[in-house]
Amino acid sequence: MNFIQAIQYCIENNLVFVAYQLPNSDAVRLVVQKNPDPVQVDINSKLFEKEGFLVSPFIENEKNHSYLIQPDLNYISNDYVNFDDLLSIEKIPHSDAEFSNGSISKKEFVFQVDEIRNAIKNGLFEKAVISRIKVVDRNYRSKLTDIFQLLSSSYTNAFIYLFNIEGQLWMGATPEPLICSHKNELGTVSLAGTREYNAENLNLHNWSSKELVEQEMVTRFIEKTLSKLDIDYLQKDGPYTKKAGNLVHLRTDFTLDFHKVNGQLGSLVKAIHPTSAVCGLPKKEAMGFIIEHENHNRSYYSGFLGPINIDERILLFVNLRCMQVLCDRLVLHIGAGITSDSNPEDEWAETEIKADTLLSIIHKV
Fold first, then answer.
1. Phi-psi region of 263 (alpha: psi -120 to 50; beta: other; left: phi over 0)
2. What is the rounded CA–CA span in Å between residue 152 and residue 269?
3. Distance between CA atoms of 159 and 191, rounded to whole angstroms?
4. What span, in angstroms and rounded, lies between the C-alpha atoms of 119 and 116?
5. Is the Cα torsion angle 241, 243, 244, 246 positive or negative in sign?
6. Model's pTM, two decimal places?
7. Which stretches of 232-307 are DSSP H helices?
8. 321: closest CA among 342, 307, 335?
9. Given 3.30.450.40, 3.30.930.10, 3.60.120.10, 3.30.160.70, which CATH number is that of 3-90+103-362?
10. b/e map of 114-144 (b: 16 or more CB within 10 Å)?
11. How many CB atoms lie within 10 A of CB 11?
12. Residue 273 has what DSSP assignment?
């Protein structure tokens, strides 16, 4: 059994596992939990003293929980691997996650954008991120490792993952870090604005005022959050353009002192998530609008996930450019940040471009 066959074995036997590849790395890690019972966790500072792979939803509720996949078995693709321990794990019966098709038409999406713009004009909030789903009807389970490999080779600066826990099988290639540690530093980013990748869009001066303002909103949100927690950042870089596969985003980087944050890391994560890049501003009011108007359950889309204390690092990413895998379909999740200057047609086009991150790969298999 080779490494890819081991991942396929986990899928076919419904094991609790995650396979992931870090940005700008050629190594894939496979983490498998022996016990089939999910380990539900709370987001607090004590959690970040544990080891495992964290999966957290957009909103915690009775349907969507945070889990920590235990690293009982831990394999790296670049190493010699013996999978005897993996083969001894008891298989888990398949149970597909509940799915209610809440996909909307372009006309309905445009109507939602207009509703948000009217709410902004009436002073209810400054920005809201509306999302939609795109359903691909076909059983792709036997092709998931092919998709994973293609994502890894196509989007080398993204966080590529495939996880399965409690009937939730998800895959993605996200460009957005939430909180990442490196030696004595922590990093977080504000990321907003999406265009197709080309030379023109790499030039910051070619972006519209709407896009620049949207990105600045996310930056201000992070600055205010850090200030409320009395956390000073060591450095701020941006905004600048950042290539992510076939897309380009506007991004600003923040560098923090790990030792000054460590005792309140849980508070920082809870305060930042969900960022205004996936929710809106002010957070409470935008969240209320999203819950009331979106036709689908975001579940783990625009939540966050990543390894904690594996290789002595904390690497959390916002779950974007992702899809839920069901027995007979793929459910792609895509969104757009709406401000007073948003053009509904342009916002629809942006969601189509984002969906192509995954669709362009899916169509190859």
1. alpha
2. 27
3. 15
4. 5
5. positive
6. 0.94
7. 258-261, 265-272, 283-293
8. 335
9. 3.60.120.10
10. eebbebbeeeebbbbbbbbbbbeeeebeeeb
11. 19
12. S
CA dihedral 8, 9, 13, 14 (to 10 degrees): -50
Q: CA-CA distance, 238 to 219, in Å (whole number)?
A: 9
* 3-class DSSP assignment, residue 175: coil
Q: What are the pLDDT tens digits along the chain (365 aa)?
A: 899 999 999 999 999 999 999 999 999 999 999 999 999 999 998 999 999 999 999 999 988 999 999 999 999 997 778 899 999 998 888 877 777 788 999 999 999 999 999 999 999 999 999 999 999 999 999 999 999 999 999 999 999 999 999 989 999 999 999 999 988 899 999 998 889 899 999 999 999 998 999 899 899 999 999 999 999 999 999 999 998 878 899 999 999 998 888 788 999 999 999 988 899 999 999 999 999 999 999 999 999 999 999 988 999 999 999 999 999 999 999 999 999 999 999 999 999 999 999 999 999 99
